[in-house]
Amino acid sequence: MSTIIETDLKEVLTQINTKLDNLAENVNQMKVDIATLKEGQTTINKRLDTIETSLTKRIDGIDTPLNTLIAVAFTALLGIIAKLIFVK
Length: 88
Hints:
The chain has about 90 residues and is mostly helical. It is about 85% helix and about 0% strand. It contains two helices and no strands. The chain is rod-shaped.
């Protein structure tokens, strides 16, 4: 039977610390990636709002409820496209 010596314990501790450091780096990178995705989503939402407002103003000759319905449907379509692009 082998005896656990202080050197072995230090080596194990070093390996554990290395793995914990790697995990911390991975978690930090994931946080950065999530923040980037959220920023992209916010930008897309702002653009969609702008497009919806623009469509609402541009469609002439159509009554207001239908005008809004068309703008909302178009915005929803763009939202679906954006999700397909950004969510993988």
